Amino acid sequence: MVIVLGLAALAAADSGSVEFRGYGVPSSESRSFESYESSEAKYDFQWAVKDDSSYNDFGHQEGRDGDNTQGSYYVHLPDGRLQKVTYYVDGDDGYIADVKYDGSASFESGSSESGSYEAPRYTPPQARYYDSNESK
């Protein structure tokens, strides 16, 4: 019985054998001619955050068409000023930014608009002890 199984395994292995051609560059028949060239980038986006309770007010918008990118962003700074940045990128010329500030800096202590906050006070938890006969 073992001899019959061995002969069957040998016959199966021989019928599915593949000719080994060695290692090297794949033949032109197996090469894919798909192009991995990327297309020109094109997008537009815009977002903003405004939360009065945390004094967060900022946003960003940008558009791109091929090598040309333009956009702007703004943020209300803790000193009360509004910073606005307008920028563009034109191909390989690099990032060109125009930064402007509206308002004047104010560092008044205790003012909620200046972004200063009172540090929280730590209060340790109170220990509670229960009598084994008492319900919690």
TrEMBL record:
It holds the Pfam family Chitin_bind_4. It comes from Petrolisthes cinctipes. Keywords: Cuticle. One of its GO terms (cellular component) is extracellular matrix. GO terms for molecular function: structural constituent of cuticle. Residues 105-118 have a biased composition (Low complexity). InterPro entries: Insect_cuticle, Insect_Cuticle_Struc_Prot. The keyword Nuclease does not apply. PROSITE patterns: CHIT_BIND_RR_2. Residues 105-136 are annotated as: Disordered. This is Pro-resilin. It comes from the Eukaryota. The lineage of its organism: Eukaryota, Metazoa, Ecdysozoa, Arthropoda, Crustacea.
